[in-house]
Structures are given as C-alpha cells and as structure tokens.
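Minutes, project huddle
Topic: does the predicted pose make sense with fe (ii) ion bound?
PN asked that the exact inputs be recorded in the minutes so nobody has to dig through chat later. Recorded below.
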Amino acid sequence: MAQRIANFDDWKDLFYKWQKDIGFDASLVKDYKFDAIYDEGTGPDIEFGDFKGWRKFEKVLDIPTQDMRDSLLHLIFYQGDTEFGSSEQQRKLIDTAPSDYDRQCLLRVMREEQRHGWQMCHVLVSNFGDSGKLEARKLLERRAYNGTRLLGAFNKNVDNFIDFLTYTCFIDRDGKYQLTMLHPSSFSPLSRSMGPMLKEEAFHLFTGQSGLARIIKAGKISIEILQKYLNKWLSTGYDLFGKDHSSSAARFYRWGFKGRFDEATASAPPKDLDRLNEEARNLYYREDCEVINNLNASIPEDKPKLRAPDMKFNRQIGDYAGKMYSIEGYPMSEPVYREHLKNVLPGPEDFKVLEPIFKAGNWMAADAGNA
Ligand SMILES: [Fe+2]
Ligand SMILES: [Fe+2]
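Predicted holo structure (tokens), as shared on screen:
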C-alpha cells in the first residue's frame, strides 16, 4: 500500500482498499455515506492554556512554533489510529451477533468508528501538507491483528460479543473522555470535529452498557465470567490515559490542544499540569464504578456483584506498569501473580463454557429492563 497520496480523493481510494483488506464487507453499510462532518466547535477563542483569549488556530501556520505543530499532528494521528484499530478488532464478529438487532448495533458502531478515522484523516490531509498525507496513509497500513496499532488496547483480541459489549461500555468510554478533552482544542478543525463524533460515541456507550445489562437479565452467563471481561477491559482502559506524570499532556494543555474532561465547567486552572492524565483516569474510574453499580442493581441478591478492578491491576502504562498487583490491589509474588492472571482474565476454560451457551442462543435478554 506504499502509495503516495496527493489529495483526499486518493486517500478515499486507500480507505476502500483498507475495508477490503480487513475483510469488512462494505455492502453491509452501502446506504451509509462516509463524510467529514464539522460543526461550530466550542467557540472562536482559545479557552485555556498559554494562549487563552487568542483566536483559535484555523490553519497549521497560525500555530506559533514547529514544535507545537509536530505535537498536534501526533495527537491527531494517535486519535485516528484508535478509530481504525477498533474496526479491525471487531471485524470477525458480524456473523456471531446474537440477534439481528445486535448485528445492526455492531455494524453501526463499526461504520461510525470508520467515519471517526475518516474525519481525523480529513483533518490531517487538509491541513498538514505532506506529513499529514503520510500519516493519513500510515493510519490505513497498521493492523490491530498484527499488533501494529499505536496503543496496546487496540491490538488486543476482541474474540466474541461479550468482549464487544464490554469494550463498547468501557473502551469507548475512554473514547468519550479523549474526544471531550479535544473538544475545546485551540486547533479549530479539531475542535469542530468533536461534536459530531461525540454524538456518535454516545450510541456506542449505550450499546455496551445496555448489552451487558441484557446479559445479566438473561442469566445464562455467570457473573464470574463477566467479571473477567471487566478485568480485561477496564485495566486496558486505565492504561489509555497514559503516564501518571506526563510532560506531553502538560504541553498539550499549555498549548490549548487538549483540555481537561471537565474543562467546560472547571472553575480554576489545573493545580498540577504534570498530573492531568492521572486526574482524567480518576474521573474515568469513578464513572466506571457508577456504571457497574447500575449493572449490579439487576443482579439477584444471592449472586456475586461486579466491581471495577483496582487501578494498579494489570497495568502496562504509568507508575504501576509491569508491576504485580491483584484485582483487589494487593502486591503479589511472580508465581502467585501468574496464577492469579489465569483466574481473573478470560481464558480457554471460559471459552469452553461459553461456546455451548453462545450456540444455544438467548443469552441476552430482548431488552435491558430497568438497568
Ligand atoms: Fe470513535
Ligand atoms: Fe466509539
């Protein structure tokens, strides 16, 4: 695919080739028109950071330094990489959907993630000259299933529909956080991209959360197995917020490229620019706990309840990266930890239990009830 692109039409050709290459049957979404959609963004002026009060940067050349432009490019192609990665992860699930409704939900999620990738590439190709075109092309060359997506979460296996629902509930929730933080961006085309993407993201979260509630309501899959999927994807979601102490997050903030999750309502500037990732991760964790509490409300009293794994568990990024902590947050020796991982993450034994349940069908209730 090492083809140079001169304009966005060239990029579109590569996009359709990418769909084919990952085995996504485009005829399944033939009535859907992929398009870049921009709205008015959060307003004309920069809302936070060193350039607060300036007009937002309309063009890359309005941005004062090359350093800043390079960082912004980086931020945009990292976001784009997640969008294409998720469709690659989900590509084999279409024929495994438990009902036609769920199949339609999956297809909608996939086509919208593809549109998000399309949108980021439109921003890259229209604004960043040759380097933007190169990065937009590279976004269609990496592959989740070859382990070459930029962030670990987007190289993980999404093996079945429980994976998909837990993923949309918690990894797409990270997506909501990232998009919300980019919404007030000082780079206007990025800010103006986020509103429509966030609207689409809300459906992904709904699909995940209501899907998990429907699994609980049907009562065919044990809470112990569901908990393992939560352990897998929440720990992955914690990683997605990056290092606990991050100088690049501080720079993104100072330059107005990426705000806080609650930037729109925050009453004061951040106390510690070095800890922005950590703060966002804490908010995400709190929201995860609320979602899990809602799910627990529909679990019968005599059954175990779901919970969020401790933030130290199974981390690959940040202060706890590579360290051995249990899902309750207790330190463990290496052999005990290895055994623990086998017990608390989904594995071959669980797949054996799940296979006949998937085959028998009706393992998701038709609606989520009150959950
Ligand atoms: Fe997305
Ligand atoms: Fe999403």
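Observations noted during the meeting:
- The pocket of fe (ii) ion (ligand 1) is lined by residues 83, 113, 116, 175, 201 (CB under 6 Å).
- The radius of gyration is 21 Å.
No decisions taken; revisit at the next huddle.
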